Amino acid sequence: MNSIEQAIQEFRQANTVAVVTGAGISQESGIPTFRGSGGLWKNFRAEELATPGAFRNNPQLVWEWYDWRRGICAKAAPNPAHLVLVEMEKHFREFLLITQNVDNLHLQAGNKKVIEIHGNIFKARCTVCNEIFDLTEVPLPEIPVPCKSCSELARPHIVWFGESYDSSLLDQALKFLAACDVVVVIGTAGAVTVPLYLVEQAKSAGARIIEFNLNESEFTRVTDCFISGKAGETLPDFWNSVQNV
Ligand code: OAD
Predict the structure, then answer these.
(1) How many helices (H) and strands (E) does the chain have?
(2) In the sheet that 119-126 helps form, which strands lie side by side, from edge to edge?
(3) Are 121 and 160 in contact (CB under 8 A)?
(4) N or C: which end of the chain has fewer CB within 10 A?
(5) Angle at CA 220, nearest 5°, toward 217 and 221?
(6) How many CB atoms sit inside 10 A of residue 139's CB?
(7) pLDDT for res 165
(8) Which atom of ligand 1 is least distant from the CA of 158?
(9) Against a cut of 0.85, is the pTM above it?
């Protein structure tokens, strides 16, 4: 492992920076993570709620669960870790934020170069015509949600267990990661294989990996510098040190 001082130096010299975020970055905004104590999957069986089969069996129940989560996300505001990423986007010549989060907080904070690989909880997609549309009203006025174009059944615009990712988004992420100087990984356990694969690819292509997390994760074996603690505290501290030359 490198020291934080080395990571700060590498970050100062970087031109091309990617950031990969997970639920941990939004934990201090009041949004529960998926795993760990109080995690969303602890109280709900994922296969009952976040799978295509679950939606086919009971679209009402799935939409109710998502509407409950939408309520939590709608009340949340970006925290200092989200705000640092807006500064980073302005600072680096080439920047890309790849998020697993569906809570919209990166866009709300002001980041523009964002790829939401798991979708967005404030969007829906028609199961018949595939139209993707915004769903801003909280709580939803009608459950299950009808498509805004054809009135057929719509579903949350989220990647569920057993579904494939949008390959054009993954291609965009992989292309960027292949040319990255530094990848910053924040608040993700690495239990989902695709984000882990993306970071491993960047590492193989020569990027340095800096990880911010409360605990070590599946990413830690490819991490060059691990910074332990709450991202809302450690990331602003790190960014201040990078800027104070
Ligand atoms: P997890 O809940 O699996 O992991 C959260 C991670 O955040 C853990 O490693 C925690 O240690 C860390 N953490 C918690 N609070 C933190 C804090 N304040 N500061 C820094 N780190 C903190 O969430 P993800 O890895 O994002 O997929 O989960 C990945 C995917 O699994 C989600 O996107 C979701 C789920 O299935 C979909 O919904 C498609």
Answers:
(1) 11, 9
(2) 132-134, 119-126, 154-158
(3) no
(4) C
(5) 125
(6) 11
(7) 97
(8) 39
(9) yes
Place of tokens 């201040």: 240
Contact 62/49 with Cβ under 8 angstroms? yes
Task: For residue range 182-221, list pLDDT tens digits in order.
Answer: 999 999 999 999 999 999 999 999 999 999 999 999 999 9
Q: Which of 1, 2, 14, 22 is nearest to 242 (CA)?
A: 14
124 close to 138: Cβ distance less than 8 angstroms: no
What single letter denotes the amino acid at residue 186?
I
- List pLDDT tens digits, range 37-52: 777 776 777 778 999 9
The pLDDT score that the predictor gives to residue 1 is: 72
Residue linked to tokens 């020569």: 206
- The two tokens of residue 147 are 């498509």
Q: Token pair of 122, please?
A: 């404030």
**Of all protein residues, whose CA lies closest to atom 14 belonging to ligand 1?**
24
User: What percentage of the chain has pLDDT greater than the value 70?
Assistant: 100
118 is catalytic: yes
Q: Among the atoms of ligand 1, which is closest to the Cα of residue 81?
A: 19
Q: Is 23 in the pocket of ligand 1 (CB under 6 A)?
A: yes
CB 12 within 8 A of CB 242: yes
- β-sheet bridge partners, residue 114: 97
Please give the DSSP secondary-structure letter assigned to residue 1: -
**Kind and range of the H or E run holding 208:** strand 208-213
